[in-house]
Design brief:
This protein has one domain. The longest helix is centred in the C-terminal third of the chain and has 12 residues. It has 108 residues and is mainly beta. Strand 3 and strand 4 form a beta hairpin. The protein has one helix and seven strands; from the N terminus they run ββββββαβ.
């Protein structure tokens, strides 16, 4: 399997996507809408097929494992960045991405 890149999403108060062995965070961006942070996007390098944990906030939290083959993949980091830009661009609305340090997110 050639390395691929995926975009993982964490929405405050709704759900988070957990990194795992075989999924390495390359970049992370906080998404702001009208001045408020609404989500965090992580561009991760998929080093091998994995099951990605998506944890829904709640009491108790719900954990779903999604095979990486069902995630949209991108051949290059640049292609993933372009897709992320497309996802958050809404004409003249007040939206912005702020890059954050992804190294603290990467954990096996």
């Amino acid at each position: 399997m050639a390395s691929a890149y995926v975009i993982l999403t964490n929405k405050d108060g709704q759900f988070r996507t957990e990194l795992c062995d075989g999924l390495h965070a390359v970049e992370a961006h906080d998404y702001f809408f009208c001045g408020q942070r609404r989500a965090r996007f992580v561009i991760a390098q998929l080093q091998r097929p994995v099951k990605v944990a998506i944890v829904e906030d709640g009491d108790p939290p719900l954990r779903n494992l999604v095979p990486s083959k069902f995630l949209p993949g991108f051949d290059t980091l640049e292609a993933a960045r372009e897709e992320l830009s497309q996802l958050v661009n809404f004409g003249t609305l007040d939206v912005r991405l702020v890059r954050i340090d992804a190294s603290e997110l990467d954990r096996p």
